[in-house]
Amino acid sequence: MRAGREFARRLTSTLKGLRGRLLFLVAIAILPFLGLTLYSNLERRQRTIAQAQHELLMLVRSVSNSQRQYVESAHQLLIALGQLPSVRERDAEACSAFFAKLLKQYPFYANFGAVTPGGDVFCSALPFEKPINIADRAWFQRVIQTQAFAMGDYQFGRISGQAVIVFGYPVLDKAGQLQAVLFASLDLRWLSRLLTEIAMTDTKAVWEALNQVMDPELNRSIVDLGMVHDLTLEDGVVSFTLALTTMACPLRGRIQEDARQRLLQLEGVREVIINTREMTSAEKAAAFGRHQEDQGSAAAFNCIKHVIAVLSGKGGVGKSSVAALLAIALRRKGYTVGLLDADITGPSIPKMLLREQVRPLASPLGIQPVESPGGIKIISINLFLADPNQAVIWRGPLISGAIKQFWGDVVWGDLDYLIVDLPPGTSDASLTVMQAIPLDGIILVTTPQSLAGMVVRKASSMASQLGIPLLGLIENMSYVRCPDCGREIEVFGPSYAAELANNLHVPLLGRLPIRPEIATLGDSGRLEEYPASEFAPLVERLLAVIPEKVPAS
Q: Which residue, 198, 222, 218, is CA-closest to 210?
């Protein structure tokens, strides 16, 4: 440890005043090799992995506690590893075993390995089945051209499959000829957590205050999102860089002011300096995880507790009205609610809930849904049309693609319930929703007609074949109540709801009356003004089927 402290002292003296996240990345990257330099040969000195790890972590903390960020010549610090006989002799088995042991010791790395001058990987801490050539990697080409240490750009490791930054180092013989190239892949996600943990030991109160600052769009802490960088606290002045998902973020001022006010409330803080920049692709990957194209651009930003689809066997039964009223009733109970209009060729949700045409906004995170006056997030194909009366004449694949985008490319954020208004029948659109969206269940809508009952059985059969739970049955337009005497008049004949629900082995959630107010309010975009008193017991029965959770709002 005396040698370690002396090395740290010399390092501090030589590079005093150097700052910057990039330099610190390099410093962290070379710490394992610093450990090798300090302890020389682990096997020769018969030190255990636990002992070496403990001593190295003590050195990490001593460097971090100086509140400065240092970098030393990677060439000097990688000499120890480059002198390993297994590397120079290309003993793949011994070399891989040593690197695997090293990887367990330093978990903030994704992989260690060695490459021939031609780019063929001959040993790696992680196993690989078929030959891998990395001659096309930019960092490798830099090492070959300069015959010196080089750092690569953000990439996904071909062996580890993780978001990494790769550091390369040439191993030369006595004649100066290249024998091999070493590489170390830095795990960006682990590093982000490590840096946050180390920084919090010195500025715990500041970090705790910033952890309360939320991104209004994502409803997640700016600390959790990895947006806070280069934080310092000196003489009562807090300074940090706020990395935004985009510099065009319309809420950047709100986030900055919230952070400033929270920090100024801390004892001893007299000034707050906030610089801004845009997140790099590597930082976005570290914050939100590796992007999966088939999940959609906004999938990483969404947290939806329950997804419920509303389905009917045929059109004209008031399915969309039921879906909209269900969303309204859930919102009134304090839940955060979204409404996805999957009826691409017959969209009607915007007409009922919005008083004027509003277009969704695009952002780097994805499509921002429109919000109703009552706070329901809405997405529908009609919101994208210049003329809401324009027909959408699409074939099945296009319709299916649009529905998938509504699910994966829309920034829904945190929702307790997402209601999906399905098109009638068992077409491609309904099939896409049931296969591509993780539904918690389906609500069937019918009317008191034997024909409607027959086709709703088809819809039920489709859901059963796809393994989607049926949450219950709603009979719409079941009766009209006489305004004079209050008697229920069955306009379309006697109700078959109880019998149908029994045959389908699902609960009857309720029978809804014909109410002229629904049509009047829906035609003017004011459906949220409808009292919907008959929906209260229906929602209670639904929540009894789905385990109720604490509202996110």
A: 222
